[in-house]
């Protein structure tokens, strides 16, 4: 099963989909345009409100105040002229003069403030009527009083001033109307601002709702569907095909998940096939073990029985007819006895080698010091013949099979005694220590040593570095020791020392601590020492 067709189909499906980047770009442009329109609309509304407020506060209301000031200035003039005419007192002339100055200032301010032609006409009418009143009555009356001549007709003066008053009232009325219009414009602008604010808020809510619905439809819903399908696959429904609809990126993600699902299924199929082969190999191994057990039985009974007869009769011939035949016959009999004995030792060693790892008993705590001392005691005859020495130090306790461990020490100590230098009494030291959860036992001798070029070869079964007539043996000792060490979860290696002889180090896991729950550091230490 391959994912290439899925990838090609993913490319075709993805090309037919709109990418999220394009959708987000279009959405961002629309939101930007709406935001710009909202800003423009709000700016226009605020600008209209500001303009209306400026007209009301900066022009109309000050113009109305100026009109009222103009009326006051005209009344001051009329009061001053009338009082001067009646009392002939000069202080009444002062209000007349100040009123004229105030009138001129008010007229100037009004002409600057009014913003309509009708109001300009009203201002001009007031100014013209005031000028006629002064020329027709006020100025002549003041001059007549000052010169002592008869004053002009007071009735005519009242008529002229009534015209002035009428024009001033008309100006104030028109300005009041203009003020009402300005206030209405301000109110209209404020209402437009409120309308614009409500409109912008409504558009914003609409945009948010639209964006939320669009995201839910184009992104959240496809992602949720994809997540549900992935959870279904994770929960065990690995045969369900993962298909998702939506933008290009989500479709591509779904295709990647589908390709991963197909790849995992392919891996599962391969694992199932590997497990099937392992089960077949396991059954084959069980059959091989049964054949091996049958071989061990045959070797221990059917083969050894005739071998014992051959050996027994050869030895009987050697004892009964030794010296009665010629030398060649004695040599043949000796060859036959030696061959039978070596064959029996070889069969026994092979049986020992094949039995390692097939024990059905559980491991027990084994004090290595006692096992090593027992193995050394079994080699006491050999040690005495060679006038050698075996020194067993304090050794830790490990978990294992006592008989196999005794055989391991017997082989290592026996090699130390056997491979001695000519004329030098063999000395074998056995020592050990526990460090970082690993027990290391060192067996060191002063014999001929092991060439570094053959350090791996010596652990291969039936491999010998010396001729049989020089050092006896079957070539199984160290390979058997290695198998026993590995069966106990450890290993064996040769350590090069400074002096003569060979040094072998055997590593074992330390006896388990009942309070220990984490075995990872122990396993790491064993791998480091193996």
Automatic annotation (TrEMBL):
What's one Pfam family the UniProt record gives for this protein? CHASE3
Histidine kinase domain boundaries: 298-512
Q: What is its EC number?
A: 2.7.13.3
Where it sits in the cell: the answer is: Cell membrane
Q: CDD domains, from UniProt?
A: HAMP, HisKA
| Highest taxon in the source lineage | Bacteria
Q: Which GO terms describe its molecular function?
A: phosphorelay sensor kinase activity
Gene Ontology cellular-component annotations: plasma membrane
What InterPro entries is this protein classified in?
A: CHASE3 (IPR007891), HAMP_dom (IPR003660), HATPase_C_sf (IPR036890), HATPase_dom (IPR003594), His_kinase_dom (IPR005467), HisK_dim/P_dom (IPR003661), HisK_dim/P_sf (IPR036097), Sensor_kinase/Photoreceptor (IPR052162)
Main subcellular localisation: membrane
Give the residue spans that cross the bilayer.
Answer: 20-46, 192-215
Locate the compositionally biased regions of type Basic and acidic residues. 515-530
Give the residues annotated as coiled coil. 261-295
Name the PROSITE patterns for this protein. Answer: HAMP (PS50885), HIS_KIN (PS50109)
Catalytic activities = ATP + protein L-histidine = ADP + protein N-phospho-L-histidine
Keywords tagged on the record: Coiled coil, Kinase, Membrane, Phosphoprotein, Transferase, Transmembrane, Transmembrane helix, Two-component regulatory system
| Keyword Transmembrane attributed | yes
State the top-level EC class: transferase
The chain positions of domain HAMP read: 217-269
Region Disordered: list its residue ranges.
Answer: 508-530
Its protein name is histidine kinase
């Amino acid at each position: 099963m391959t994912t290439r067709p899925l990838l090609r189909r993913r490319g075709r499906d993805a090309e037919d989909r709109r990418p999220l980047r394009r959708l987000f770009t279009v959405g961002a442009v629309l939101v930007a345009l709406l935001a710009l329109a909202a800003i423009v609309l709000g700016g226009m509304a605020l600008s209209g409100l500001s303009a209306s407020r400026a007209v009301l506060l900066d022009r109309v209301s000050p113009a109305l105040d100026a009109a009222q000031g103009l009326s006051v200035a005209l009344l001051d003039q009329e009061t001053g002229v009338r009082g001067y005419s009646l009392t002939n007192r000069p202080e009444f002339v002062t209000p007349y003069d100040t009123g004229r100055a105030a009138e001129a200032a008010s007229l100037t301010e009004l002409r600057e403030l009014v913003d309509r032609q009708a109001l300009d006409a009203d201002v001009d009418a007031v100014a013209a009527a005031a000028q006629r009143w002064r020329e027709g009555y006020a100025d002549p009356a003041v001059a007549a009083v000052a010169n002592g001549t008869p004053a002009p007709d007071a009735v005519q003066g009242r008529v002229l001033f009534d015209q002035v008053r009428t024009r001033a009232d008309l100006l104030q009325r028109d300005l009041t109307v203009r003020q009402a219009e300005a206030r209405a414009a301000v109110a209209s602008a404020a209402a437009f601002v409120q309308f614009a604010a409500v409109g912008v808020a409504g558009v914003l809510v609409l945009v948010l709702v639209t964006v939320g619905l669009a995201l839910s439809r184009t992104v959240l819903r496809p992602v949720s569907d994809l997540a549900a399908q992935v959870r279904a696959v994770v929960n065990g429904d690995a045969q369900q095909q993962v298909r998702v609809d939506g933008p290009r990126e989500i479709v591509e993600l779904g295709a990647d998940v589908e390709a991963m699902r197909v790849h995992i299924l392919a891996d599962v199929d391969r694992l199932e096939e590997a497990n099937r082969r392992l089960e077949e190999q396991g059954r084959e191994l069980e059959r091989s073990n049964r054949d091996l057990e049958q071989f061990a039985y045959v070797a221990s009974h059917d083969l050894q029985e005739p071998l014992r007869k051959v050996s027994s009769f050869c030895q009987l011939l050697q004892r009964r007819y030794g010296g009665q035949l010629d030398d060649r016959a004695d040599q043949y009999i000796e060859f036959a006895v030696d061959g039978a004995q070596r064959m029996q030792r070889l069969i026994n060693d092979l049986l020992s080698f094949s039995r390692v790892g097939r024990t059905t008993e559980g491991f027990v705590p084994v004090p290595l010091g006692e096992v090593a001392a027992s193995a050394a005691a079994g080699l006491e005859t050999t040690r005495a013949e060679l006038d050698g020495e075996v020194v067993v130090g304090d050794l830790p306790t490990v978990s294992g099979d006592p008989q196999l461990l005794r055989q391991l020490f017997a082989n290592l100590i026996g090699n130390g005694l056997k491979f001695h230098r000519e004329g030098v009494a063999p000395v074998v030291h056995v020592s050990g220590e526990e460090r970082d959860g690993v027990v290391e036992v060192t067996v060191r001798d002063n014999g001929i040593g092991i060439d570094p070029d053959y350090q791996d070869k010596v652990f291969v079964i039936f491999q010998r570095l010396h001729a049989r007539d020089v050092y006896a043996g079957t070539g199984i000792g160290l390979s058997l020791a290695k198998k026993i060490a590995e069966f106990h979860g450890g290993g064996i290696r040769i350590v090069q020392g400074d002096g003569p002889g060979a040094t072998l180090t055997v590593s074992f896991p330390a006896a388990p601590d009942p309070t220990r729950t984490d075995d990872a550091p122990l396993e790491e230490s064993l791998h480091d020492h193996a």
